[in-house]
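Example A, followed by Example B.
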Amino acid sequence: MTNTKFDIKNPVHFLALGFGSGLIKPAPGTWGTLAGIPVFLVLVWLAGVGSLWYSTAVVISFFVGIYLCGKTASDIGVHDHGAIVWDEIVGLLITLAYFAPNIATVAIGFLLFRLFDIVKPWPIKALDKHVEGGLGIMIDDVVAGIFAWLGLYAIDHYVDLSSLVL
């Protein structure tokens, strides 16, 4: 991966690259997901855990992400370049939705999201392979986020993660 194709001064590229985190090697998707943690914390601070405002912000981030990721991929001529990580940020926001912001929740959610994003069980792999453009870049991470949320919910059912405070 070369960084020369990206214009980090372009706000579309800057956001699609996860504030530049997608340019960090190795494992830009992991760095992009890590960049999602402060986004999550700020969003919870502004909107509250499980609020309509949080959910609205995530939905808006998804639709904005379709444009950001699609435009950036088009600009550099590479579909779903590894450095484009806005999709990871949105996937993590989905994973952590409705959970208290504490170390256990964030760490387990992070690990679950990365697991589903990397392994790509059905239908994630099919979506990643067959859906084009910005939607294609975003949708597999949205579904990985949903799977990770379900896993986090199951864990929280047996271990009360909300009792652990950040």
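Example B, a separate protein, is given below in the same form.
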Amino acid sequence: MRVDRKTTVLSVIGVLALLAGPVAAQLPPFPQVPQMPQDEPELSDPAPETKRRPPTLDDLFERLANAEDQEEAVGVAGLIERRLGKSGSPTADLLMRRAVTSAEDGNPDAAIELADRVLALEPGWADAWVQQAVFFQMVDDADMAFGNLLRALQIEPRHFNAMEFLGMMLLESEQYEAALLVYERLLRVFPFSPTAQPRVEALRRELNGMGI
């Protein structure tokens, strides 16, 4: 099933405009560092060793964008996928695992229903929208899959798997201009994406009349 060309291109351009906002705006403010009193003796008891905080999702996306090679980038991408794959709700996580199992067992309709329950509990879980898009694609409902991917990107504009899936759908529908926009954006988030760079090059050749 193909998505309507005009609707697709306009929708993707709208989402990419949303994605174009500065990533820095999503970063949390720097924590305030407490000031030591001026008369505090310098040789008093040593300060307790500060614990190193775990990297935030923003930290991981920054590392992904600045990775020095593909091996490092793929490793960081895996860490991001694990973070995005957790909702913070044990119930929602359990339901999504059951949905994935249903899909793997050849029952995508049940997977879609379970994902509906997940999204009722956690509508802001971007990865759940992407997972349900996979289930919709399994039943050849491209329009619903497409809508889910756009929703996921509205929630998390850096979701590279959502962009990868969206780009693939656009390629299959021969929406080359829109696909190029998506893959170019993907490369900004994940420069060492194993698939995005060759697809960008192929799409530019196609759009320049040289064929994919």
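On Example B: The mean pLDDT is 84.
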